Amino acid sequence: MELSTSLGLVLPELILSLSGLVMLLFAAWGGDRLSSSISVACCVALGAAFALVAPSVCAGASGPGTMAFFGQFSADAYAGMAKLMIYAASGAALIVAPRYFDRLGAMRAEYPVLILFAALGMSIMVSASDLLTLYIGLELNSLSSYVLASFLRSNEKSAEAGLKYFVLGALASGILLFGMSLTYGFTGGTSFAAIQAAASAGEMSTGMLFGLIFVLAGLAFKISAVPFHMWTPDVYEGAPTPVTMFFASAPKVAAVVLLGRVAVEAFGSQADAWRQVVIFAALASIVVGALGAIGQKNLKRLLAYSSINNVGFLLVGLAAATQAGLAAMLVYLAIYVVMTIGSFTALLLLRDAEGNQLETFADIAGLSTTRPALAWCLLLIMFSLAGIPPLMGFWGKLVVFWAAVEANLLALAVLGMAASVIGAFYYLKFVKVMFFDEPIDRVKGEADTANWVLLAICAVLISPVGYLLTGWLVSVANTAAGSLPLAG
């Protein structure tokens, strides 16, 4: 009975696993000519997994009934909400890829399969209730990501991005594994429940504290939080743009949600031990991300620093170590995913007459005159990322800072708000270049319907119209955060 119950709880992951294996066989037998069909099939698989997870999120699934395989896997609402974002972001990466790679003659059947396996790894990550499950999911995602980063094999930047990501990712995995071994050695178990029981028994030992710090350091690399952010600009710039969009959205969701689960579920009784680390990483990421972006001329590198900056705001919610803080973090994540998909989709529409991708500020000078619809969509997205009301990005920051204030972290909220002003500078630079510089009319590429539809959806969701969904989003986020055993 235990096996059948567990298999029912992991049905979304089983669908992704079986679909990935079947599509891998089709890719091996049919070759690249089946790449479009395989992409559609992978989108269907992600849609099916999305449909299976959604009811558990709306119902607020929690408690022993969500535990599978003797407590190693948790199919609760907290993990479910993260999975919905992961599947949606993965689907977006599949939608925008064919046109981009076909133009370069580099579309391969393996691309959608790698996205599917990466989504599977992330799905396991966010449901992990044991250090071993955590590591399996993380490595499955990482191995797929290394290949995706270097997908354009003949491109030096892509090959360099893949190599850097692999070397630094292996280092981070080693740090994480060492932290896990220390944690196991000083708590006597690998399950989050066993770790929590040991941590609650008395004062945290030095060895357990070192294990916690190493685990946090390994996960901080995955979310590109300062000081483990050095790989992000190079990998984001060198990787193909659809892959960069994927890296900036889905894996970020998985790693942040996993970090929240480890901190609150495994070490919730020792919040004071890890809160200081999280507060430092939050403020440092906000400041370094903002300052690093100011001098960037390449748009993808700028968005990489923007990603680091946004991680800082996410960590502000985690630092609260309360249900309200986790709910605010989930709300911000949902808004962040929409803004990220929208920004990179807009970049994919920046092409010259020959179809080459344009990636610098010089290329978008006077864009409002030559491509007004694209310029206005970019304006909405950049204003939202800057946190300017009445756009949804402002509301995301507001709920995170409010959670910090309620948790008596007023100084953190004030410093975070002050540092966020720095970030407004480079977001406004987009507007200045597009609307006030002399037009150069380089963007002449043909319109891509799929990209435009995706961009329009993102623009509507982050506009004031998106506020119609805020009540529902807050309700779902609160329910999801409350499903964690120690979220309160």
- The low-confidence runs, each spanning 5 or more residues with pLDDT under 50, are none
Considering DSSP H and I runs of 4 or more, what fraction of the residues is helical?
A: over 70%
Query: Which strand-content bin applies to the residues?
Result: under 5%
User: What's the order of the H and E elements?
Assistant: HHHEEHHHHHHHHHHHHHHHHH
Mean pLDDT figure: 86
The tally of strands reads 2
User: How would you write the strand order of the largest sheet?
Assistant: 1-2
What distance separates the N and C termini?
32 Å
Organism: Aurantiacibacter xanthus
Membrane topology: Multi-pass membrane protein
GO molecular function: NADH dehydrogenase (quinone) (non-electrogenic) activity; NADH dehydrogenase (ubiquinone) activity; quinone binding
Family: Belongs to the complex I subunit 2 family.
In short:
The protein is mainly α. The protein has 20 helices and 2 strands.
How does the SSE layout of this entry go?
Blueprint: H1 2-9, H2 11-30, H3 35-59, E1 67-68, E2 73-74, H4 77-104, H5 110-127, H6 131-149, H7 156-187, H8 192-200, H9 206-222, H10 232-238, H11 241-266, H12 271-294, H13 299-319, H14 323-348, H15 367-370, H16 372-386, H17 392-406, H18 410-436, H19 449-462, H20 470-482
Helix pairs in contact: 2-3, 2-5, 3-4, 3-5, 4-5, 4-11, 4-14, 4-20, 5-6, 5-11, 6-7, 6-11, 7-8, 7-9, 7-10, 9-11, 9-12, 10-11, 10-13, 11-13, 11-14, 12-13, 12-18, 13-14, 13-17, 13-18, 14-16, 14-17, 14-19, 14-20, 16-18, 16-19, 17-18
